[in-house]
Design brief:
The chain is of the alpha/beta class and 337 residues long. Helix content is 32%, strand content 14%. The relative contact order is 0.12. InterPro entries: Haem_peroxidase_animal, Haem_peroxidase_sf, Haem_peroxidase_sf_animal.
Length: 337
């Protein structure tokens, strides 16, 4: 029995040995006037379920931590925590690990200084993405074929909508990356958490210039609908004779219900968008399908009309054949293995 007890103690020691924080010091970057709420999660790597987290006295009444998850929450406005330094303590049985945390608050409109270069860099990247590989043979490689299929006629509103969306999104992402990399020089790669709200990161003048980039381009070309045509146009127009452009490619959509946003960064991100701190819980797609969608075809094994080919053709028609606006920089992912 003593031998068994000794073995269990040894296994417990091995299990906790080497459980450490990913970095000796972390930085949490906040924009000016950042509100109370979640500011990231810092935990021991591969931490056992019994791990308990706490904060040093310096963070008292300013920041709190969930003792089980390591989720940090700001209890005051960001102005009161600029350059705040404290420690996170993780305990499991007899083992104790510590790491330092430094909260930095950026000055108002800190991102303005990077916006012009970021927009130009994004535009250059888009121009590069539009170029197909040289040589006829290159058309038949995946990268060349992908770029060829993404070509849209010059002046087509779809191209303008797609490009405007990409410029705005990538510019904001690039400025975020520049700021994070700036602090990673001092704290190390992967040790910087940034919570940047656009309306405090950029001035109204810069935001206005970004808004101009994202202005929807509506075609003014009149649509002619053939009354005797058996089929409607493949781009979605003419399905409604009274409003022929409604539902067509390149036509802005109007919501019947207000959108539900979870907006910690001022970007109007929908609920469920990646990398949101403390997001509301959402049911999984499987749960939604199981509880709310009734599939009356699933039990039919001899159906000769509704096949997987029908579904694939619907996807082809809806996205590829109708030239739905989408990001044209997908070729950058082709080198990932």
């Amino acid at each position: 029995m003593k031998h068994l007890h000794g073995i269990l103690l040894f296994l417990a020691f091995v299990n906790i040995e080497g459980k450490k924080f990913g970095s000796d010091e972390y930085a949490i970057i906040l924009t000016h006037d950042y509100p109370k709420g979640g500011i990231g999660q810092i935990t021991v790597e591969n931490a056992p379920d019994e791990t308990v987290y706490s904060l040093s006295a310096q963070a008292s009444r300013l920041v709190k931590i969930d003792s089980h998850t390591g989720q940090l929450e700001l209890l005051v406005d960001s102005a009161q925590v600029d350059d705040l330094k404290f420690e996170i303590i993780a305990k499991f049985q007899s083992q104790t690990e510590r790491t330092k945390v430094n909260i930095r608050v950026l000055s108002l409109y800190y991102g303005n200084q990077f916006s012009s270069d970021a927009i130009n860099a994004v535009r250059r990247s888009l121009e590069k993405d539009k170029k197909t590989p040289e040589g006829a043979a290159s058309i038949f490689i995946p990268a060349g074929l992908d770029l060829l299929l993404q070509q849209v006629a010059a002046g087509d509103p779809v191209d303008g909508i797609s490009e405007a969306e990409i410029i705005v999104e990538r510019t904001i992402q690039l400025v975020h990356s520049i700021i994070i990399q700036k602090f990673e020089k001092y704290f190390g790669k992967g040790a910087v958490f940034a919570f940047l709200r656009t309306k405090e990161l950029f001035s109204s003048a810069v935001i206005t210039s970004l808004d101009k980039e994202s202005t929807c381009i509506v075609s003014t070309t009149p649509v002619t609908c053939l009354k005797k045509s058996i089929y409607r146009r493949f781009d979605g127009k003419c399905s409604n004779r009274k409003q022929p452009v409604a539902g067509g490619t390149g036509t802005p959509l109007v919501r019947l219900l207000r959108a539900v946003y979870y907006d910690p960064d001022g970007l109007n991100d929908p609920v469920g968008f990646p990398n949101q701190p403390n997001p509301p819980t959402l049911p999984s797609p499987f749960e939604v399908s199981k509880d709310f969608i009734k599939d009356e075809v699933a039990g039919t094994t001899e159906d000769q009309e509704l096949t997987p080919l029908m579904m694939q053709f619907g996807q082809f028609m809806d996205h590829d054949f109708t030239l739905s606006a989408e990001e044209s920089g997908a070729s950058q992912c082709l080198t990932i293995t």
